Amino acid sequence: MAPPPASANHRALPTLPAAVAPLTEPDFAPVETTARADRIRDDQWQLEELRAATAWRTSTGRGVVVAVIDSGVDGSHPDLAGQVLPGIDLVSPGGSAEPDPVGHGTTVASLIAGRNDDKRGVAGLAPGSRILPVRVLDDENRYDDAMIVARGVRWAVDNGARVINLSLGGSGDSPALAAALDYAFARDVVVVACTGNVATSTSPRVWYPAREPGVIAVAGLEGTSENLWSGSITGHPTILSAPATRLVGARPGGYWGVQGTSFAAPLVAATAALVRARYPEMSAGDVVNRLLTTAKDIGPVGRDDRFGYGRVDPVAALTTDVPLVHHNPLDDNNSPGVVGFGPAPGSADDTRAGGTGSERLGLTAPRQQTRWEARPAGTTNDGAPRRLWTGVAILVALVTGAALTVRRFRQWGR
Length: 414
Description:
Layout: H1 8-11, E1 15-16, H2 37-40, H3 45-49, H4 52-56, E2 65-70, E3 88-89, H5 104-113, E4 130-135, H6 146-158, E5 163-166, H7 175-186, E6 190-194, E7 216-221, E8 240-243, E9 247-251, E10 254-258, H8 261-278, H9 284-293, H10 314-319, E11 351-352, E12 355-356, E13 372-376, E14 386-387, H11 391-400, E15 404-408
Parallel strand pairs: 1-10, 2-4, 2-5, 3-4, 5-6, 6-7, 7-8
Antiparallel strand pairs: 9-10, 11-12, 13-15, 14-15
Helix pairs in contact: 5-8, 6-7, 8-9
């Protein structure tokens, strides 16, 4: 089924700007719409394109908790009633992540877990799953300190999330967020993030945290085509792709049309929820491997830097016989534990996604079998280097005052 033509209904839906990168000027301007709930379902072409009805015969994601780390979620929206668990507001401490002052997080949540008990409104790709909302974006849909996202990841893990969706990002790496993601991986959580949008980025690089090893980085496709959306950032860290344009999502008080990699990522997160419900004993690493090996290969044969392993395929992910690998193929760190990151003594403040300044964390045991490349501080790697001190290196740094930069490598699954 092709994306809906510019019908009267579709024209009535305002376009939601693509995901906003941190520290950018906001371009997010919600507009009221009179589109009726009973006409919205007809515009959800992606459900047919991804063969949702067939997938639902095997799994609806029932019981799987998906954390939406975003601008909050409006759990009172009819399409999300009963779908949203108590969350947390890290922007205005003491809040519950409801309501959503922007609408971005509500849209993401609806694409994942919108109710499918009638023919009205938005149905999510994993309608049996539950949303755990974590608000980290402010009223302008931005964050200026990656530490708040790191706190959100840890809170989500500690409160039962089995899948985490991060439809946000920035150009700079964040040691604190990297450590939080390691915390999630060590606790058997699948993490999905968008690769980013050209219009709201100052860099052509795939956004962080999508490029963090172990994370499923999702690029956006143009409608039903096998073409990359012109607004999608892509590159070597790209892992999967999913529809990103002419989508319709719930927002507080109604609906709107959306586009952006922010809305491709939740389709992959929802697929992960379907798989986790179908195979409840399967490790997060094997869920990731299943998504990669069953993706529909588009573009050049095999994995490529534009589409990754291809377009996510929920039905194949649920039904294909895939041997277990017992680890995350995107990360060569297969042992539990958390790596502690922070600037070495005497080094310049580190740069983090959405802000600058030092992030000093307690040093803990690094995960075994991690492959690191150590070079003198200031050496250029593929993007901003990360500073780590551990083992012998920490002794050298303390004695000589020297700083080391290290880079962890993403390992490809095939």
